[in-house]
Design brief:
Elements (H helix, E strand, L loop, with lengths): L2 E9 L2 E9 L39 E4 L5 E4 L1 H5 L8 E9 L8 E9 L5 H14 L1 E9 L2 E10 L2 E7 L21 H14 L10 H14 L20 H15 L34 H40 L3 H23 L1
Parallel strand pairs: 1-5
Antiparallel strand pairs: 1-2, 2-6, 3-4, 5-7, 6-9, 7-8, 8-9
Helix pairs in contact: 3-5, 6-7
């Protein structure tokens, strides 16, 4: 790997010659700008404002623009001669526990390679000291025209350095947190814990950039003249108010199902989705709106009696109708004695029926 910077690690009075090598790579796909009308590439040309001529890279230097617009030229030699101990040195200033470093400060990562055979012994000494102490080294160094902060730690058998942002470069998170008081119930936290346990850990080496792969496939398809089919748009669910408990429960079940764990189905899935029935607890206080046991029993007894009364009334009506028909038939026969007899008989029977009805 090509080195970016050569210098030394200053470890007290020990100096360790090292080379700085990039520890990371950028695999992003880069696009060019083109003219939509004819597909011609759009280029940025560096042109001098004074003469309007395009300037080559080896003719371009750097300068600081003063408040009045005056340009103050600064050369690489000027920067190299700055009275800084970190100009060509990674100066270790302290050793601290790793959790003292805020991850927000993490920046670019580098490998520090021992530069030459004489550097092997002090390099190994520093590496083993970091391992045994379980600490990281905080250091200062200069790179690309500015002094920077770094953290040295051990990765396998190599000393790695993470560039750190200065503490005053970390912005305070003002106005970022949700406004107002939000209460989280224990049941919600329990489900969140269950989801975390179900998802478990992951092999970091198995993670990859799906978006980059999709873009590469798109480029290959268009290069070969194939028709690119649009992907099905999924419902992102943005802006919807959800039932948090239900969402957590479904997430736990989905995570279990994806891992092939037993009992991954929803509760009640095997019995038609019936919900669990729990008995209602008895309360000590009596409510006037709720019927008592005695009144309920009395109501049950009164129901058959009222039904019997209805049947008796119906029977009486039918009997009266029959007797009235008999009276009419007797009257039509023309016998006066018979009329009286029928009348008196009908009267007696009607009275008897009234007594039964009143009873």
């Amino acid at each position: 790997m090509r080195s970016l910077w050569n210098g030394a690690i200053s470890f007290g009075l020990v100096s360790i010659p090292i080379k700085l090598v990039n520890a990371t790579e950028n695999h992003s796909i880069h696009f060019r700008q083109i003219h939509l009308a004819d597909g011609g590439r759009i280029r940025y040309r560096k042109v001098c404002e004074l003469d309007g001529e395009e300037v080559a890279g080896d003719e371009i230097g750097k300068a600081y623009e003063d408040a009045d617009g005056t340009m103050i030229p600064i050369t690489d030699e000027d920067l190299a001669q700055l009275p800084l101990p970190t100009a060509k040195t990674i100066e270790i200033v302290a050793f601290v526990p790793a959790d003292r470093i805020d991850p927000l400060q993490m920046d670019a990562a580098y490998y520090l390679s021992a530069n030459g055979v004489p550097a092997a012994k002090p390099y190994t000494l520093l590496r083993e000291a970091l391992k045994r102490s379980n600490k990281v080294a905080v250091a200062k160094y200069a790179l690309r025209g500015r002094e920077r902060l770094g953290m040295l730690r051990v990765v396998d058998d190599v000393i790695a350095m993470h560039g750190l942002l200065w503490p005053d470069e970390i912005r305070a998170p003002e106005g970022v947190a949700p406004e107002g008081d939000v209460t989280v119930r224990d049941a919600e936290l329990d489900l969140a814990d269950a989801l975390m346990d179900t998802l478990g850990e992951v092999d970091m080496d198995s993670l990859h950039d799906d978006y980059r792969e999709a873009v590469e496939e798109l480029i290959a398809a268009k290069a070969s003249g194939e028709t690119v089919r649009p992907a099905e748009s999924g419902d992102a669910g943005g802006g919807k108010v959800i039932d948090l408990i239900a969402a957590l429960e479904n997430s736990v079940q989905a995570a279990k199902k994806s891992r092939g764990e037993e009992g991954a189905g929803a509760e009640g899935e095997g019995d038609g989705g019936m919900a669990d029935v729990h008995p209602i607890k008895k309360t000590s206080g009596k409510s006037s709106s709720q019927p008592t046991k005695k009144s309920t029993a009395a109501a049950k007894k009164s129901t058959p009696e009222s039904t019997g009364a209805k049947k008796s009334t119906s029977t009486t009506k039918k009997s009266t109708a029959k007797k009235t028909a008999t009276k009419k038939q007797t009257a039509s026969s023309g016998g006066s004695g018979t009329k009286k007899t029928a009348s008196s008989s009908g009267t007696k029977k009607t009275a008897s029926s009234r007594k039964r009805t009143s009873a």
